[in-house]
Design a protein that fits this description.
The structure is a homodimer.
Chain A: E1 2-9, H1 13-30, E2 35-39, H2 44-50, H3 56-64, E3 67-72, H4 87-98, E4 103-110, H5 122-125, E5 129-136, H6 140-143, E6 148-150, E7 157-165, H7 166-181, E8 186-191, H8 197-210, E9 217-222, H9 223-232, E10 239-242, H10 244-258, E11 265-269, E12 275-279, H11 296-308, H12 313-328, H13 348-358
Parallel strand pairs in A: 1-2, 1-3, 3-12, 5-10, 8-9, 8-10
Antiparallel strand pairs in A: 4-5, 4-11, 6-7, 11-12
Helix pairs in contact in A: 1-11, 1-12, 1-13, 7-8, 9-10, 11-12, 12-13
Bound molecules: 3-isopropylmalic acid (2 copies).
One 3-isopropylmalic acid (IPM) sits between chains B (88-89, 92-93, 248) and A (194-195, 224).
Pathway (chains A, B): Amino-acid biosynthesis; L-leucine biosynthesis; L-leucine from 3-methyl-2-oxobutanoate: step 3/4
Protein name (chains A, B): 3-isopropylmalate dehydrogenase
Site (Important for catalysis) (chains A, B): 142, 192
Chain lengths: 359, 359
């Protein structure tokens, strides 16, 4: 029996999670494998109910599960908490650190058929793109020590430490090359080696790892250039291998230029295959509770979970095929429709139901 | 007599600098002020001639001048040098550090008339935008110490220090608010305060400074969100106040989405008004030596120099008006023309000559 910790969170989290649960039940039924789910509080609602964004009971529940399906956290209610108590930060960094989820995969795909959604110029978007951002998620300036304040008065400073070891770079680089082998055999490694000592080591180790994957083409780009290239011609990329901080920025650019953030899943894995799966978008408090949010990112996150942590590849394929069918047949929430077609929008539950039936 | 240190550099640097010099001579003549220029080697050509990208003789020449007009540096010939010897890094970081050029201004403007050049979707680009990136240029992880390597074998790490003092944040923030007062009264401060101690202090000091500018609206954005917003709706921004590293990335996105990098000047100033002025684009070795590069970014950099370091505002205005005339009348290099009109392109010198005549 596989067991899943469900952390729906805040905003649209609970309503899109509802659909993902329905879809999980549908594939468990069809492919005949036992699956149990257990809900836990996280984020703002956990602050309200337990006084902290990531309560010990939630962490314990996740430890006992085979995978975590995460919704989204945060909202205006908790916005005035001090930075270190923000729900996003506490929940995400806490879970990433605790479970050592070093490998974050953020696929961003633009189908030529949906090119008009992209924020890029039509001749650029029309060719579509398929970029996988492989972001290192437990190192870099996020977790590097020391971090804090020193000095007095106007000389007082805030400081952080960017740091990567060879070992940390090597393990994420290997996974990026392996991912590229199953895709278009190209890795673009992102750094700022013209300024950062951390990046010089990053580039050195990535070059070493590349020797073991002679079939994969490797290029190195400075982060500023990578950001520019993404908004000039995203189709030039296959796998983008990024340190934590640069991956944060570049994966968000990738998400935005698909024009359909509500469709993008992500996976964060550790070395034993345990993982946390979550949509790329946020908690979207402005539309929460109305039943109009796009559940596809959450549903595709469940598919990634089945594939990477629960070894149910066929079920994952079935979900992805059903989602493709919904898109093909125009079973779309409002975010995927141009202004003049918004009246044709389906509700969150209608999209979930269609996908369940298609399975 | 104002004296200018000319550092043309590599690639297209010398040929676009040639036009800037002609334009400077034209305004000096018309507005009747004495101006002398002196050339110095920098970048790759300085490595070739003197063994280093920023020779002491060049620094000395700059010290004796009232301002530096910089072209661009780097190219394939020097690409295989170790990261710490790269011409871009050595020349730029060396000059920024030596002259404490902490205030980098990178204006990025898209005129609605040139909207089709933007890489953004036409309905987004059609409203145009006018963003000024105010980037702190002598602090942050660029110059923070310690920086280096430690440990052995697979535990060996590379590390860098991100650090800002209140004083450093305050001086750039003040200039950003003052710039906003002359523009559209809005400052967007960029940080990553949900992760970085440096950013928490950054946000604190920016909030303090804001009190002295009650007429300017202030918002804070996380860098990942700022990058997304730039490719979704750049028109929402006026002044973007950025720490060094985030400013590097965001200013390049801004430049790219104008679609006309060859037209963007920049200024890097210290607290006494001394400054270095350079185009946003690079040395473009692929088109160097052909006489087809766009000289406008270099010419507009000269205009900023006249305004900010040489107190010749009228001459700067005259240059900018002449450039606008060239654009209006279609006196354009190939980079500004759509594919089917490339045959109408003017050469570098023709654009320079037109601007001189229009002055
Ligand atoms: C909320 C924040 C700490 C987080 C990050 O920076 O990693 C988020 O932006 C993300 O990308 O998942
Ligand atoms: C060449 C490099 C050191 C430099 C920087 O990162 O500042 C460049 O990208 C820039 O933006 O001027």
């Amino acid at each position: 029996m596989s067991s899943i910790a469900i952390l729906a969170g805040d905003g649209i989290g609970p309503e899109v999670m509802q659909e993902a649960k329905k879809v999980l039940a549908a594939v468990a039924d069809k492919f005949n494998f036992p699956l149990s789910t257990q809900d836990y509080d996280v984020g703002g609602c956990a602050i309200d109910n337990h006084g902290e964004a990531l309560p010990a009971s939630t962490v314990k529940g996740c430890e006992q599960a085979d995978a975590i399906l995460f919704g989204s956290v945060g909202g205006p209610k908790w916005e005035n908490l001090p930075p270190t108590e923000q729900p996003e930060r506490c929940a995400l960094l806490g879970l990433r650190g605790h479970f050592e989820l070093f490998c974050n995969m953020r696929p961003a795909t633009l189908q030529p058929a949906l090119a008009s959604l992209s924020t890029l110029r039509s001749d650029i978007a029309s060719s579509g793109f398929d970029v996988l951002v492989m972001r290192e998620l437990t190192g870099d300036i996020y977790f590097g020590q020391p971090k804090g304040r020193k000095g007095e008065g106007e000389e007082e400073s805030g400081f952080d430490t960017m740091i990567y070891s060879r070992k940390e770079i090597r393990r994420i680089a290997r996974l990026a090359f392996q991912a590229a082998q199953k895709r278009n055999n190209k890795v673009t490694s992102v750094d700022k080696a013209n300024v950062l000592a951390t990046s010089i080591l990053w580039r050195e180790v990535v070059n070493e790892v590349a020797q073991d994957y002679p079939d994969v083409a490797l290029e190195h780009l400075y982060v500023d250039n990578a950001a520019m290239q993404l908004v000039r011609d995203p189709n030039q990329f296959d796998v983008m291998l990024c340190p934590n901080l640069f991956g944060d920025i570049l994966s968000d650019i990738c998400a935005m230029i698909t024009g359909s953030m509500g469709m993008l899943p992500s996976a964060s894995l550790n070395s034993s295959g345990f993982g946390m799966y979550e949509p790329a978008g946020g908690s979207a408090p402005d539309i929460a509770g109305q039943g109009i949010a796009n559940p596809i990112a959450q549903i595709l996150s469940a598919a990634l979970m089945l594939r990477y942590s629960l070894n149910q590849g066929a079920a994952a394929d079935a979900i992805e095929a059903a989602v493709a069918k919904a898109l093909d047949e125009g079973v779309l929430t409002a975010d995927l429709l141009p202004a003049e077609q918004k009246h044709l929008a389906k509700r969150t539950a209608e999209v979930g139901d269609f996908i369940c039936q298609a399975i």
